[in-house]
Each structure stands twice: as structure tokens, then as C-alpha cells.
Amino acid sequence: MMKYEALVFTVSALVVLGVADAFPDGASPRACVDMVPGHSSTTEPGRVISPQESISPYSVVARGDGYTPGGTVSVSILAEPSNITFQGFLLQARTLTSLDPVGTFLAGTDGASRLLTCNVTGDSITHTGPGVKRSGMTLTWQAPTESVGNIRFLLSVARNHDVYWVRMESNTLSASASLSAVTMPILVFLLGVTMATSN
């Protein structure tokens, strides 16, 4: 009987410890579509913690109002008030009509973020550990080489293991023509004018 109780205690402790450390090194690929981390309760084994329904103190803001195919965009995670910290996040860019992430993120150099593969390498980005992260954290997204239409960034943020918000939306970015698409017709026109006047 004592051995059985010891076994039950050991298994229970391992379950609790595993749950408490759920996804400490970043979001799971299972969160790619709904962006819900799937944290389990540490006090009620088997119960998944639901996201907060209150207004999130966090937001995601993309710099500018457009993107150039193949170009980069800075994306910031902000908090209001700004002294609120967070531990985990998942960030994607999506078109307005699709659940699939588009473009890719560039690996950060601060050690606080890592690339996550949902469909292609780096199409999402997440945290590397549960350490404190502050408002103003900025990440870099690279657009696809061809326009995919209007896009926006979606962000899920965990203040801690038990408190998180999902799918906050950024401002919408519209696709602008790439530099080559703009300049090539002009260059062809100027070349034609030059050749005509030289004759």
C-alpha cells in the first residue's frame, strides 16, 4: 500500500511540474492556428486554462501603413501601462482572409525570441523562456517577395502561466509596389526618350 501511495505521489508531482513548466521555451506548433497556448491548470489537473476575455493591456503595432514585397517591417509589442511585463508571446502576420501565416521573421539577437515553424521556417516567432519581457519589444518581419494583399499582425501574450490574451490585431498594412516595379517602367521610358532625341 505504501509503495502504491508513493507511486501516485511521484506521478502526481511530475504531472504538476510538467504543467507548471508548459511551453517555457516558446509556443508549441499546436498553437499555430488558434494561437492559444494550451496551458493546463496547476491546481486542477486536466483543465486547460481559458484565455482572458477582458480588454488586453497589450497591443501589437506595425511601423508604417504598408509593406514592400521582400522588404522588412518593425513590429512592437506594447503594454499599457508600460510597466506591465509579460513572459510569453506568439506573433504572426496573416492576410485578412486566411489563417495561414505569411512572410517570415528575422531571428532576434537579444536571446528572448526564437523562430517557430508553422508552414515554413520562421513564419511565426515566439519566446525562448519565461523571463520577464517589457513593453517596446520589437521584432522584424520580412514580407514575401510577391504581394499577398493587405496583412496584419496577430499577437498572443502570456503575462504568466495562468493569465493570457490571444489574437490581438495590429494596424493593417497594404502592399506597395516594389522598387523595381516602380522604377523599371520609368527607366524604359527614359531610355526610349534618350534614344529618340539622339536620332
Automatic annotation (TrEMBL):
UniProt-listed CDD domains: Reeler
Q: Which domain of life is it from?
A: Eukaryota
Asked if Lyase is a keyword of the record, the answer is no
Q: Which GO terms describe its cellular component?
A: membrane
Cited Pfam families: Reeler (PF02014)
Recite the UniProt keywords alphabetically.
Membrane, Signal, Transmembrane, Transmembrane helix
Membrane spanning residue stretches: 177-196
UniProt KW Repressor keyword:
no
**InterPro entries reported in the protein's UniProt record:** Ferric-chelate_Red/DefProt, Reeler_dom, Reeler_sf
Segment forming the signal sequence: 1-22
All residue ranges annotated as the Reelin domain in the record: 17-190
Which PROSITE patterns would you find in this protein's record? REELIN (PS51019)
- Protein name in UniProt: Reelin domain-containing protein
Name the source organism: Patiria miniata
